């Protein structure tokens, strides 16, 4: 039942006073009332509001341009802009991060290639700050949870992923590319 028996739902629709629980089976039935008598109850129907885990990257690439040995750049100053992830689903999610190798002379998990999570100024409080990786951390090859409990309401459903690159003095010159992988999963 979506409302208590005898609650007097009038009309052709009903909006519950609070959000329905995700992945929960709800049952409902109806009957008519014409101010004098009640009709018989309909068959019992059911529905489930399934959790939807979906993310998108509204900024999905970073280009640091030309950098020489011994130089460092990062996206914390928004130049270049950081990755921006948005929760497009209907539930709290955790977002993991990992990447492919950026440098030919150094493996992942070194100080030359790092990330951190930050708020978007217009959407502070979108995720659990203390449970997220908010300090510069070496980019991992195996996925680690970076964003804890990213919200899904439109006013607070996005997070910024800053990237830091430090060109090591012994790195071969040339174009460098890497893929950063974000994986979302339901918070349980």
How many E-type strands?
Answer: 11
Total helices: the number is 0
Helix content: under 10%
| Derived structural class | mainly beta
Gyration radius from CA atoms, angstroms: 24 Å
**Could you tell me how far the N terminus lies from the C terminus, measured between alpha carbons in angstroms?**
25 Å
Strand percentage lies at 25-35%
Q: Residue ranges: pLDDT <50 for 5 or more in a row?
A: none
Characterization of this structure:
This protein has 188 residues and is mainly β. Helix content is 0%, strand content 31%. The chain contains no helices and eleven strands. The chain has strands at residues 25-28, 45-48, 55-59, 72-74, 83-87, 93-99, 113-118, 137-138, 144-150, 158-166, 180-186. The strands form three sheets. Strands 3, 4, 5, 7, 8 and 10 form a six-stranded antiparallel sheet that branches. The chain has a three-stranded antiparallel sheet with strand order 9-6-11, with no helix packed on it. It has a two-stranded antiparallel ribbon with strand order 1-2. The radius of gyration is 24 Å and the shape is elongated. The protein starts with 24 loop residues before the first strand and ends with a strand.
């Amino acid at each position: 039942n979506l409302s208590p028996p005898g609650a007097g739902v009038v009309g052709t629709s009903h909006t519950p006073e609070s959000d329905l629980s995700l992945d929960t089976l709800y049952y409902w039935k109806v009957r008519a009332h014409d101010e004098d008598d009640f009709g018989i109850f309909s068959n019992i129907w059911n529905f489930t509001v399934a959790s939807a885990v979906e993310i998108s990257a509204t900024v999905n690439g970073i280009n640091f341009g030309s950098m020489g040995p011994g130089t460092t750049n990062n996206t914390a100053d928004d130049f270049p802009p950081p990755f921006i992830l948005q929760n497009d689903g209907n539930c709290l999610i955790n977002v993991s991060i990992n990447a492919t190798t950026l440098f030919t002379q150094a493996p992942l998990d070194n100080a030359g290639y790092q990330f951190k999570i930050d708020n978007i100024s217009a959407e502070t409080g979108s995720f659990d700050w203390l449970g997220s990786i908010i300090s510069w951390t070496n980019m991992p090859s195996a996925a680690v949870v970076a964003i804890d409990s990213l919200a899904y309401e439109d006013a607070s459903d996005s997070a910024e992923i800053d990237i830091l690159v430090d060109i090591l003095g012994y790195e071969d010159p040339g174009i460098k590319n890497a893929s950063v992988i974000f994986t979302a999963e339901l918070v349980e």
